Structures are given as structure tokens and as C-alpha cells.
Structures
1.
Amino acid sequence: MKFITRILRPEQVRELVTLFLIVIIVLGFGAFLKDYYTGRTFVRISTSIAIIAVVAMAQTLVAITRNIDLSLGSIVGFCAFFLGVQLSYHHEIGPVPAALIAIAVGTAMGLINGLIIAYGRVPAIITTLGTMAIYRTAIVFYSAPEGGIVSAHRLPLWARQFASWSIFKMGDLDFRVMVGIAILVVIIFQLILTYLPYGRRLYAIGSNPEAARIAGFPAQRIVFIAYLIGGALAGLGGYLFLLQYGNLMVLAGVGLEFDAVAAAVVGGVNIFGGTGTAIGAFLGATLIGTLDYSLRRWPAISEFWRNAILGLLILLAVATDSAIMARLRLMWARAAAAMTMELAESKTSSSPQA
Amino acid sequence: MTEPILELRHISKRFDMTQALDDVSLAIYPGEIHALVGENGAGKSTLIKIATGVHQPDTGEILVQGRPVVIHNSQEAQALGIAAIYQEPMIFPDLNVAENIFISHRSRGPIVRWNKMYQDAREILAKLGVVMDVRQSAQGLTVAQQQTVEIARAISLDVRVLIMDEPTSALSLHEVQQLFKLVRSLRDRGIAVLFIGHRLEEVFDIADRITVLRDGKLISSRPRSEATVEQVIRDMVGREVEEFFAKSSVRLGELVMSVRGLTKHNVFTDVNFDLHRGEVLGFAGLVGSHRTDVALALFGIEPADAGEIVIDGKSVHIRSPQQAMELGIAYVTEDRRKFGLVMPMPICANITLPTLPKYVNGLGLIQRQKEMEVAEEFRRRLNIMTPSVMNTVERLSGGNQQKVLLCKWLNVQPKVLILDEPTRGIDVGAKVEVHHMINDLAAQGIGIILISSDLPEVLAMSDRILVMHEGRQMGIYTREEATQEKIMAAAMGHPEAILERQA
């Protein structure tokens, strides 16, 4: 016990639990679904996780500060659409400039959210509920001259092939570029959250907003930047979304904000701020992606049941989280108290004046 | 003579009706523990908030090391070397001890070096003589440990003026001693400490200089060697009483409520009193005396754990406000906005809220006409200044809102009326009217408990005064024996101080 408390933090225990659940799900479905352990399953699950993971990263950043972004799905949709229309007319745009375009548009949308929430002091849930609808309507307006759709056959060749680009193959397992991008994003943000003062202050703000206000760092600007980065990530999500599906309708990306919240929460991000990690959110996205695909393969389960099961999973995660995490933290606090006692004793026994 | 590190010159600050600070000048020197004492509302908190940039003074100037400065927010105060520690520690529960210490630092490089941070945190804590696991998350810490972390944070930021706002109120005796050891070591290292306290014992124990504020004015400032407990208390109270309407003496009726050994763990202990018909029993005490908690227990909002309440000869256990109302107890809250009135609702609807079932006809519908008649009658009786009882409460002045709140509970026709700070935040004219009303109600045979931080008010209006200090009952004084000095001495935990001097 003492050994565990010294090498792991409660959050890491939580992540291991998520990982364990993923393994259970895979083993469970593998036992009675035919042809489950195939390269195809791996590609399907991993690419569907890629988009959710990137968007869940955006949700995680703002959730840590005790905020939320409901407009992420609409930002993803708009960026995918905007880029799709541009690529339809400008085949000369390459993959990297295209990504930058999507990210720029997403950042602009995040900027609007951030200004209203951080500086206008409008509650995040109201602001992003509003911009969710507004950005969605923007898609309808923007796409009207195109007949409300983006067609894959009008995109440049690279955009049609991008989703099947591979980084490397290990036997049957094909690691796609999209998945690589998502994992890179997760790693970068895990490093930001752990090793940059900016990341640590996100936690501080969510942990105690009142104290953050008087602690002497620019809390408003930090929240604003979180929305800015969130928008940029949603823009990247839009890029991946376009390249994954090619054909878009105005409802593109609807429900992604739900998946993003689900992934973050299932991965241990506290919706009331202060805790959560990029890796946790990624594991949450993996769990949801795996479950979603596996249920899809199971003929007895209809689409509506899938949604209900996802909803149930969120409720379970939130309900058990507060209880389990509280207990874990208590165990850790006790261990720390015991260690403090030890330290104090060793100090008194070694210093002659005491 | 050293130069003051922080100097406030002729600071005045006004909030709407109240002059929170009036031409206060204060100098704080390095290596000195400067204690600030005063009654509730004397202006202590406002002064701290001005020194830390939360509020801006209306007039006057702030000098740091002889240089005039303008402090816009706590960030700027911190940059000038001024930090404050509040009653409730301002820590980040999800971060660990080391992170809590360094969260505000700017100069620790672009990347968090965890091992170095833990090392530095250990060093700072060791310098303070504190043993603590720096990797421990802050939510497992006790209040005293959290305060230590806050002090460590301030020290690591190279703070030169440390303001401590009643830091001992949530600490045990042992923890207070530990804290004082720490504070003295800070002083010895040349840090100026501004210590706001309400336990005189502690103030006299720790302070090098004691400054008294009263009604926003600086009354006295003396080195501890020249100050006496009696003198400090006299400085804290000495207010004029003439504007107050005194209660006319009524012959006390029979016993209506009797309380024995009322206790709520960790809040208040062993409260005993009798209340007669027509009597006003004053409750005096400072912040943290838990007078209001006794009222909340009597009204069933936060029921007591132990003790006996006897009403009209019957022993009762009050578990809910509904039950308290049925027993004839009414409670007029101190926080009108939060617990008292529904601001966007009309006056008449506010008045009938607790007694609504009385205004319902056979179909279960509210009889507006009857409601309005009752409200109209109260409007005349209490002289509520409004064109119509259909107006919403939010449009009334503070004094008139207070009257509506009173009407609401008078309409219940209580036997025991608890008034919690009934004149806070209302102007003098309205105050006199409220005092008139209290007098009338007592004359009608209602037993009244008057909780008030306004000492002259309590003295003028009460037949007897119960004084509390940190959840303990310090004594009950009759109108004849009570003086401001005696009450204040008891409220500060020194009931004998004045008596000794007289003996």
C-alpha cells in the first residue's frame, strides 16, 4: 500500500482503471463476436478514436478550468465544411496549408467563445450553447451556394486518400496518419498540462476560482487562451473529419461535443474542474470508441441502444467517480500524514536541541 | 528610526450609506507585528482590501517604502511585496503542497521542473521549521497546515508585508501557538505583519503595536507595552448613544421559552437562558461568536445536538422551521437578500408566504383580495413607504425591505420573535422606527431575542443581554449592570477584565 501511494497518484490509478475496462471490453467482445481480432477492427476503432480524442482534448482543457464548451461539434462541422469548399475549388492547397486553414478558422471561433466567457463573464454553458447554434447556422449559410454539401469526388486526390495513409504496418495492424496526429496531440497536451506553468494554472483556476482571482496570476487570460486552444483543436478535428468522411452534410459533427464530454468524463476529467489529464481523456475516447464500434458489430443492439449505453456509461463514470476518487484521495492523504509523522519523528530524533 | 514599509495616509472609503473608513492613517514597520482590532464593521476588512488592491480608496494615498503607489489588484499588491492570508485559506485543493507554494511565481523558467520544485518547497518549509510532505495534495491538509502553505507561498514570493485576517479563528489552541511561533520568526526576519484579531488574549500575546478602529476611524495606536486590555476595550466601544430609542420598561409576563444546555458540536456549547413575555433579550458578540447559529438552532434550520428547549412548559425538539413556526417561533434573518425576501415578488406575496394556506379558498386558489387587505393593514401599521403593496420588494429601500420582512413574520403571530441584525444597513430614521416597533411588539407580550452587533442598540433595547464568545455563553447581564465596556470585555473573552479594574 505504502509502495503504491508513493509511485502512483490517485489520478493515475483512475487511468489504470479505464485502461483495465478497455481490455475487458476488448476481451469480452472478442470472445463472442466473429472475426473481432482483425486488422480491420483495429483500423476502424483507431481512426474513429482519432477525431474524438482531438476534440476531447479541447473539452478537457476548458473542463479543467471549471468551464465547458458545447460549441465544439459545431466548430468541427464548420471547419470541415469551410475547408471542404476551399479544397473543392483550390486543388493546389496541400495537406499542411489545409490543416493550418482549418486550425485558423477554429481558433477564430474559439476566440469568440473565450472573449465572451473570460472577459464578458457570461457563464460558459450559456455562451457555448448559443455559439453552438450560431456556428451551426453559419454552416448552413456558408454551404448554401454549394447546395449544402461537400462531395468527396470534388476534393483533391490527396484529400481523398489521406484517411488511408499509413505510418507503419505491424503485420495486420495498420497505424494510420490520422491516429498518429491524434496521439501526437495527446502527448503534446499531456506535456503542456504537466510541465508548463500555464498548464498547472489551468488546474489552479478550476480547483479554486476564488483563490485564483487573488493569487496573482492572470486567471481571465488563462481561461481565454484555453478556449482559443480549444477552438484550434476543434479546427484540427474538422480537418480530420473532412479527410475521414469526404462527403459532408450540414449536420457534420453534430453530437461530437457530447462524445467529447463523454470521453473526458469517462477518462477521469472532473466536470467541476481541477482534475483530469490528456492521457485520461484519450483513454476515455478509446473506451467510448471501442465500445461504440463493438456494439455496432453486435446485431442485436440497435443504434438507439448504443446511445443509451453511452449515456449510462457517462452517468456511471460521474456517479462512481466522486465516490471512488474521494476514497482514493483519503487513502493518499492518510499515507501522506503517516509520512509527515515519520519525517517529524526522524527530525526530532536527529536534532539534539529538540 | 527605520522607514515604514507600508504607509496609509488619510484613507477614506464610502460604500453607499456607510462611511467604511474615515481619514485613517497607519504606518507599518519592518520587523513589527501590528495588531488591528475593532468591533464588527469597524473598517478592518475594508482597510485590508485597500492595502491589497481589492478596493480603491476614495481619498488618501498609499506609500510603499516612502514611494506613493496605486494598487489596482492583488497581483500588483503582490509585486509590491504585500500579501494577505484570510480566515478561509485560499489554497488549491487539487494541487499538491509544492505546487500551491509556487503557483503564483513568474520567474521559475518556462518549464515546470518538478524535482527542483519539490526540493525548493522542502527548503522553504524547513526554513519555517515545518515538516510536511510536499507531494501531498492540499485537500488532505488541516486548516492550520493550509495556512502554513499560504505563509510559505507568501515567503517564497519575498513578501515584505504579510496581512493576516483573523487567522486563528479556525485553529485549536496548540495550532495557534505553532502559528504564533511562525509569525514571530517572520518578524525576526524583518517582515512586517499586520495581524487582525478578535481574541484580545492573542492580540496582547503576539502584537508589538495595537491599533483600534471604530466606525471607520482610527481611535488609538499604542505600543503593546503602553496598552492595557481595559483601555483597548474602551477604545473599541465608546460610541455615542443619544440617537437611540430606549425600550420602555414593561412588566415581564410569564415564562415563554426556556433553554438549557443547548449545544451544537463544534459550533456552540451550553447555552442557557429564559425568555419571558414582553421581554427583549439581547444577544451580543463579535464575528465568530455563533449567536446566529443559536438562532438557527432555535428555528430548526440547523437543529442543535443536545440540550433542552421548553416552550410554554412543554419540552420540545425543534427539527425543522415548519415545526418552529407551529410552536410560535419566528426568525427574521440577518441576510434579507439570501434568506429573507423574494426580491422580484410583490410586497403582499412576500408577507403571506409563510402563512399561505390561510389565504386559499375552497378550490385551492389564492385569494388575492384577502392577501392585499392584510398587506395594506401592515403597510399602515408599520408605515412602509410604497405607493402599492403590489410593488415588488426589490424597488424598496433597505429600511422598508426590513419592515416587509418583519411583517412577514408578525403575520405568523409568533410568541417568540428572533430578530437577527434587524437594523444592519438601514438609515438612522428607519432604525428608530424599527426600535419603536420592537418596543410595541414587546408591549404586546411577544418574547423577543434581539441579535445585534450594534452595542449601543443592544444596550438601549434589551431588558437583559446574553453575551457570547466563540460559541460559549459568557454571561447574562441585566439592563442595570450592563455597560458597553463590560459587554465588549465579555464578547472578547475577558469578562473579568473590567471588573478587576473596578475591584
Note: Chain B has three domains: 6-237, 242-328+416-503, 342-413.
2.
Amino acid sequence: MSYSVTLYTNSSSNNTADKVITQIGETSFTANPTHSISVLNPDIVVTYDASYLLCNYVYIALFNRYYYCTIETDTAQRMILHCSVDALTTAYKLHSLSSKSVSVVRSESEGASDIIDKSFPVNPSKIWYEGIVLPNNDLTENSYPYIISVNSTYS
Amino acid sequence: MQISIPVELKPIKNGANELFKLSKLNGNFSSMYNNGILVPNVDIDDSIFYWLVNSKSALQSWCYWTTANNVRTVVNGEGGEHSSPIILQCSANRSNKSTQAEPCETAYNEVSDNWNSTNTQAETTSGIPSNFQLNFTSTTCFSVTGNTPLIYKNNSVQENLTTSLGHFSNLANIYDFNYNGILLEIMVAYNNQNNTTISYATLANYIANYNTADNYICGIRYNICFGNETQRYESADTAANGSYFITANYKPIPYIHTRMKTPTEAAGAASYTDAEFLRCSPFTPNSYSANGISLVDYSDTLSQASGTKPHITSDMWEIVQRQPSTVQIDFIRLKKSGEGIYTDDDFNKIRREVAYLGFWFSDGTYNNGTFLTTPIGENATDDVYMSEIKNGTTTGNFIKGSIAKDTEQAAAGADWRDKIGYNGKDTKNQDRGNLNTVLQRGSITAGCKWYGLNATQLNALVTWINTGYQPASNDQFINDFKGVNPAEYITSVTYMPCYPIPTGTDEMINIGPLSTSVTGRKISYEYGVLIDVGSYPLSREYNDFRDYKPYTAVSLYVPYCGTIELNPANYYGRTINVKLMVDMSTGTCTGLIFANDMLIDSIQGQCGISIPLAAFNMGEYQNAIVNAQYQLKQAQRSEDAAMIGLGISMIGGTLTATTGIGLAAGIAGSIYSYYKLTAARDNIENIEYNIEHMQPKQSNISSGSPTNSQGFERDCRLIITRPNDLETDISIYGHTVGYMTNKQGTLADFHGFTQCSNADLSGIPLTSSEISAIHEALKKGVYLP
């Protein structure tokens, strides 16, 4: 039985949830009913097409998953796609990962300014000083420096 | 619905048009953005936001609105220079998008203080005649990659916002002008009881002159005042430091009406609710004449297209019918809570409306020919108010300038600009309860008088005590001083060269009942306890965690006490006040460090040198006299009885002074010595002699030990140490490492690099190993759109 596989070029890093992928073709592969095929790491064989050499990412409808892939070719005009599931993007694109509740500790968009960030490149060995003399000082040199108290019982 | 303005705004990346710097008002607004790009067709219901436009030259009589994104923008105001900046008010309607009949009921323009009826038509699906449309046309409008925000006029493109060098070229971030030289001046329109006149005044002027039973406030507007005169009409004054905020030549620029609402339904617009108004009444109705009588027509402010009346915030405004009613017209006016007049509560409602906009504002900037010169920000006075912003959102509360100036919000200034992530956004102004420290000052010991003396006076006094008093007899001495050593009347002598001596004239010093002819400056106890030694409003440098320990250390040198380390978190946004609590008799002091009026830290010290007195014991002295007299009688009765005599020696008696800071003196004690007489007869004369010459002990003033504290600085000095950044270019730090946070939500709430401590991934139909892989990825950090 023949199954569809969509071939893409992925330009995003592996830790990108919503990968930017450009479709470069669509082909099919045949699953041999006597051989098992891994859902998470399938190796599939497709007919050779030079344009597919740009493929590094596929979607296999049969498994409803996105995969990273590497390509092998053989002399029989076949291409073997070694696929490895991309669970992150699969969940994001197909299973509404973005709606899941999370507790975020680092964020590019929602940083909280006053939480100490030990990763931040601060050099504690190079400090700079700021000296501020406080204004409004009532202490002034006076001409009556001797303060005496006198018993005034009889005065 | 709370109408408020968050000011946590993100700078635009990649130099994109500053139109991104919008201010949101309500919950869903943030979803409009996709990494800084405005996304169409998201629900931004009930949102109203504001843009500052650099120039309004071509915006007169225009109404801007959008079709694709339901952002309805209205330009109000006229009367200033055409090149002057304006604020655009934008509202988002609810559900009916571009077919909304009346998204902007306030599509009015005011000319010469009267409504211009040419722009009062309700919007239709084809747009308001002669009005403009701000059309966010594509899915990534405002993008720098080619999608273009456009201004439309009558459905024809008028201006490309991305490339415009015109009046949209310098849209300003709301918080830029919040802290950089814009102040709103509140103006009110008021009418008379019969509603036949309409007049205008600043709120301050109204309060002072027109708050009478015959006058009612029927509208609010606010003038936008820029600071620097030379920049007044050209741009937001980003360089203004507040020192020249309002100049004598200040002129108001176009005012902004607050007549805005967001409809809840589609065409017909019959269902407006109170909450959907911008909380203020309409302003400036038409004047007209009917039956020969000048009247003011509020009908267009009351009647929508369908003839229904607008709803208003009923706790603030009321709709009444004009009396007498030649022409039946209802009108809106501010409720009065006083007896025929408005009270402070009423005026505060007006101020709150303005405070919701997030600007500094004033009741009035001109009074009887005098222009205010008060600054805003850290040096504000009570002539202005600061709109409170908490957690990035205006609250409607406002704070008097003199108090607001000490807040972090006021002090932050332009430092908040152009920073991502570690931007300050929380005023931290959340102190509760009565935090003022009220010191219970003790009074000086009863029966004592306090004097400040100079060296000459002190010398004279000591001389008088030592040699100046010469009693004719022992009885006279005892009578004069009540049996007390004259030096004993001096209960303390303290050298305090920095003590703040009160002004006034010197008084004669009495020792016992006798006048010494020596004068000194009388000190009342109020002067003796608490001395202000400095104050300083402490503000943050980085506006992020680096302002705190252990990154930033703050120490304070307190004169006569030494140095104390302060926790800067206790003092940021507040004024450090330092006082010395002085014990005048011993010279000891306590440095008290306040955050505003709240006592936080203290440190002990010594601000004076206590000059020791002789260890004279009056009781011993009197016993000696009695005993001697008794023994004399015994000797007279029994000549061979043994007597015990008493001798007194004196030691010293001169004032010795040292130079410099060690100029101090001490009084050393004299001693008593006893003489035992074995031959009474032989000693009667001696005893008589001794009694005759029984002088109280005299004091010796000698040099005191210099006290080191006298030689140190007499000003308080803050020493702040701050770290240097290891790398000065941290522009991609947030994108690659992420800023620390502790927020919860869905992943859709976050963008860019995001690292999670945990995630609830239930419901995702993947294998456990895949779920684990996702967990692992989220913990390491992923990029979200």
C-alpha cells in the first residue's frame, strides 16, 4: 500500500516550535506489510528525484507526524529517508501545543526585570562607584561649641 | 471594563515603523501582536489606545479607522498649530468589524470651540465621507518585509505609513511622553442653569471662580502641553528634563476630546452601555438661536443615528432637561455632590478621567497672568499630578507631585526607553499602613537650663567659679550657694562644634541664685534632640535586578557615627532622610536613616566630647560640715577630746585649652582630705580655721582627649557601587538566553525564546517518549512564534 509523504526544507533550528518549512515536493512510499516500520524513526524508501536532495524535513500523513530526515541514495534510483520524529513541532502544528499551560522561567518577550539573572554577564570584579553628598545638612560649624547644662533650681 | 493604559511597551525590532508602539487598554490586545507584528482579525474588543502623532498638519477634520483589524481611530481636536502633535484615540469594536455602523461616535471635529457638524455623520460601510481610513491590509501589516500599513481617504491610499516622512513619521511610545515633557491641562466647559451659555476654563480657574450654584460642568477636555518651548510643537520632547516644563510662552496645543466609546453591537448602535464609554461626557455642544433666544444644543451629543441617547457613567454624569424649556432639549452635566456646588470629590472624578490616560496633568497652568514653572518627574510640585501606573497599567489614581516625585515611577524617566525584558514596569509603590515614624522626644532634665558657649564664655564662667566668687565668710558662701559647690550647678559640659545653635541673643548664666555676668546662647530642648543631616531621593540605575544586592551595594556614611550598609531595596523610589538623635549631656548620638518617613536603619555614634566634671559629692560635703561643727562643740566642751578635722585641698583651677579639634576642656575633681586631730585644744583653732575656710571643691578644667569623630566629614555621603556589564552589547541576550521571569500561562502568551520549568501536556496524542522529548525541549528552551 502506498502512503503519502510531504517533503520540506526546514530552515529553523531544532528548538523552534513552529518551524518554517518550505515544501519541495510530495511523494509516496510503500509500506511492506511483512515488515514493521517505526513510527518515531521510520526509514522510508521513495523514488529518486534530484529535487528531493534539499529535503531535510518531512511530514508523513500515515503517522500524522513531522520528522527530521537525512537522505541516502542507492544505485537503484531510490532514496532512503532516515526519519526521526520532531515531537515539538508535531505537537505545535498538529496538537495545539500553544494552548498548553506552562510555567515559564526565561522568556524573550515576558522578562521580569527584578528577578536575579545569574546568567547575565555582569562582572562583579569591575565595579564603579558613585558618591553622593546628601544635601540639607543642618550640621554646621557653630560659634558656640560648648553645650552646658546648669541646674536652675535656685536661679 | 476598566479603561487603562499599559505602558509595558516593547521597542521595535529591526527598525520597523514605530507604529508598533501602541498602547493597549484591554485584555486581548496583546494577541494582536506576533513578535511585534500586528496581526489582523484577532479579537481586541473594547480596547482603546493612543498614539502620539508628530504632526497633525493634514489630519484636520479627519477620522481614521481601519477595516481589517477593527481598529477605529479618531482624530479629534483643532485650535492649535497644524504642525503640532496630537494624540490619536483608537477604539476597537466588538464583533461586526467593517460593517459596524458607528464605531466612532466621536468622529467629530471641533473648530473654534464649536462642533463642526460636517463630520458628525455616522460611519457607514463605505466609510465616513471626508474621513480617512487607516487600513491594516495584510496579515502582517506593519511588517518590514513588504506588507504595508496604509492610510486611506475615501478608500484611496493617501499615505504609506511605513515610508511616510509626514505626520506619521514619528509616532511616539506612550511612555516616552509620559516621562518626557508632556503634561495635560484639564479644561472644563460649563453652562449656566438655563443652559443658554457655554464657557470654558481650566479646572483650576473653574474651582477658583466659577464653582457656583448657577454653573454646571458639561464637558471635559485636556490641553496637551509640551515642555521645551523650542520643541513645543515639533516633537515629543525626549530630551526634556523637566526643569523647563512650562514656559511663560506656553501655548496649549489641540485638545483631545474624551468622547469615545466602543459599541457592543453592530449597526443601529442602540446598545451602548455605560462601561463602553470613555467615562467622560461629550464636550462643546452647538450654540444656536431659537425663537430669538440663544441656546445651546446638546442634541447631537445625545442622539445617535437611531435617535437613542448615549449612556453615560451615571455615577458621574446626569442627563437633565433644560429649564425653562423653550425648546425641549436634554443635556448632560456633571453631578454635584455639594450644596449647589461641586466638591473635591466631584473634581477628583474629573481628575481620575484624565489620570486614566497615564500622563502627568495639572488643574491649570495659567493663573492671573502667571504661568506655572513647575517641573514634572523627580522635581515635581503639587501644581501637577502624576497618573499612577501599576504593573504597567494606569489605575485612574493620581498622586500629588510633591509625593509622586519620590516614586520610582517618577524617577524612572527616560531610562525606561529602548529596553527589552528588564524594563521596569512595576512601581513597587505598594506600601501599606501607617509607616511614618514618630519619634518620642524626651525633654531635658527638669530644673536645668542649656546654653551654648564659645571658648571665651566658657573660660569666663570657669574663672568666675574658680576665682571670681569671693565670699566674705563661710556663712555667706553657704547662704549664697545653698550649701552647694558652685561648680556642682553645672551638670554637664559637652563639646559639640557642629551643634545647630539657635538664633537669638545670649542670656546671663546664673550659678545658683547668683548671676555670673557670663552670657551664653540659651538652647531650648527642641533644638537638642533631632538634627537633620541630609536627604536624598534614591533612584535606580539599571531598572532591573542589577539595582539590588549583591550587584549593587549602597553604604551611607553618617557623620559622627560611621558607615552603615543599606539595603537599596528599602530605599529605591523613596527619599533617604538622615537624622542625628543627640544626647546633649554626653555627646552620644544615634544616626537614624529613614525611607521617606519610615525609620529603617540606625547607627550609634558620638558627636560630642563630654567634658567630665569633678566627682563632688554634696552629701559628703554637708556631712563634713556638720561633723566638723559637732566636733568643734565637742572640743569646746572637752578640750582634751580628740577631734577630727577636715582639710580641703584644691588642685588646679585654670582653664587649659588645646588647639584644633581637641579644643576641649575637662574639669578634674578636687579631693577631700581629712585630718585627725589628736589634741583637741591644740586643734580648736585649726578646726575653726578649717570651717571658716571650708570651701566647696573647685573644679579644674583640663584638656580633654580629642575625639576622632570630630575630624571626619560632617556631611552624609552615599557610596554606591555598581557592577560593570561583562559585555556591553547584550542586544541578542533576550533572544538567545531569555530574560528571567516567573510567569504562567499558555505557550501562546509567550514569544521568542521561552524556557519552561514545567508544562501540562495532557491531551496531546503522542507517545510518552515524544511527550518526554517535548518536556525536555521546553526545559532547555524553545522558540515560539
Note: The two ends of chain A are 122 Å apart (CA to CA).
